[in-house]
Amino acid sequence: MAENIDDITISFFQDEREVVKQLEKIVLTRGNWTTIMFKYQEMNKKTGEYDKPKVSIRRYQKRGGIYKQQSKFTISSAKQGRKVAEILNHWFPEDADGTDHDDDNED
Length: 107
What we know:
This protein has one domain (5-91). It contains 1 helix and 5 strands. It has one helix at 78-91; strands at residues 12-14, 17-29, 33-42, 54-63, 66-75. Strands 1-2-3-4-5 form a 5-stranded antiparallel β-sheet. The protein is flat, with a radius of gyration of 16 Å. The protein starts with 11 loop residues before the first strand and ends in a 16-residue tail after the last helix.
């Protein structure tokens, strides 16, 4: 748990080994409710090698000065990620001039 959004990480160590390695982090929304997208890899317990990257979108709520995870969604493959992106692009198309008039309505 973290007091600041910038301190939130998905990295996880077990027996001094990084079993979940954070590759990238994008903060989508800030505030008492924050949404963060992580790109990460999990260590394969059998081989000790890292598996292919995954993406996790997580929601955190700040209570008592600490951010606590409330929910998460994991995109477990590149194929699934492309399908989600395809659907989102279909549901939220840009205008013909390339602008997105929804930018001011962030959560």
